[in-house]
Amino acid sequence: MTPSSRHIFLATAQAYADFVADLVVALPPEAWARPGLGEWTCRDLVGHTMRSITTVSIALASPVERLDLVGPEDYYAAVSTVDHAAVAQRGREAAAALGADPAGAVRSALAQARADLDAVPAGADPLVRTALGGMRVSAYLSTRTIELVVHGGDLARAVGVPFEAPEEALTEVVAILGAVAVRRRLAQPLLAAMTGRERLPEGFTVL
After folding, report:
1. Class in CATH terms, 3-171
2. Confidence band, pLDDT 50/70/90 cuts, at residue 82
3. What distance in Å separates the CA atoms of residue 49 and residue 148, rounded to the nearest whole number?
């Protein structure tokens, strides 16, 4: 895998783990039941986002021989095929798995992912199974960084506490999602909004 994809993922996951730990201290217990995103509570959202870390370990334990998705752009181009009801349910199950110590659960998941990544031989970039097909670990890590940054922001908006993602992660996420916008022929309205020419239509998304 590329050193940068590993470094950016781990730095972002650490920032997210620290964010959750800070929220456990700052928020009253009932705050976790507030609306988080869509049908998820804040606790559900924390559980779902933690899966962006745990799925790295799951993927590394699931080698495949066929490359289906070359880059993170391919992964997000295939998102329309996802069973969103199943994703929502997995988020609720992950929330239950947080137990009485959400911060500890996220930190434990990160420690395991870090150990599993450390076990990958230097210079290797194995093919692994993901929810949408076989990918190189380096490309898959970029999708995990995107999930952490985007859902960290969702949680921040839900609780009114800012999430500070690493600058290098933000740079990577914007670049990848920009490439997804080009692929989906959404670059023009996105560029118009980014340069103050027009506002994006309600509900606009590149995903």
Report:
1. mainly alpha
2. confident
3. 6
